[in-house]
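Below is a filled-in request sheet from our internal design queue. Each sheet records the structural input a requester submitted and the sequence that came back. We keep these sheets so that new team members can see what a complete request looks like end to end.

REQUESTER: design group, bay 2
PRIORITY: normal
MODE: inverse folding
CHAIN LENGTH: 124
BACKBONE (tokenized):
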């Protein structure tokens, strides 16, 4: 098990920068610099790209979680693009933000636990 790094802190800040405005937007209907669903979709798209960049290609090639990270990242990005085009608030924004949170959790788990390669079988 490894310690948290600056990369993990940056990933946490990026996730918070998406989730906090989304919660405020959901409750109040608008936030500063965020007046409509397209703005929230734009923030989410940038969040997915920044998270993927922060975790780096090694996380997406990891043996156990790499494929899951890739699929979750692409799905969240797809929902963000769809929300940007369709301009709907909840139908597409909720799965986008949920995907970002799942991407963050899986990325941190992969980074902290350092799961690399197949687990060796131990015979007693």
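RETURNED SEQUENCE:
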């Amino acid at each position: 098990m490894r310690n948290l790094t600056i990369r993990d802190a940056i990933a946490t800040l990026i996730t918070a920068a998406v989730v906090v405005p989304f919660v405020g937007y959901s409750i109040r209907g608008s936030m500063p610099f965020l007046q409509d669903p397209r703005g929230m979709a734009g923030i989410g798209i940038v969040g997915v790209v920044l998270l993927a960049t922060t975790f780096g290609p090694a996380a997406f090639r990891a043996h156990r979680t790499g494929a899951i990270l890739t699929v979750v990242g692409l799905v969240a990005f797809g929902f963000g693009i769809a929300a940007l085009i369709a301009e709907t608030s909840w139908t597409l924004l909720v799965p986008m933000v949920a995907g970002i949170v799942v991407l963050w959790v899986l990325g941190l788990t992969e980074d902290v636990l350092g799961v690399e390669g197949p687990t060796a079988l131990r015979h007693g």
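SHEET NOTES:
- DSSP finds four helices and no strands in the chain.
- Residues 6-113 form one domain.
FILED BY: M.R.
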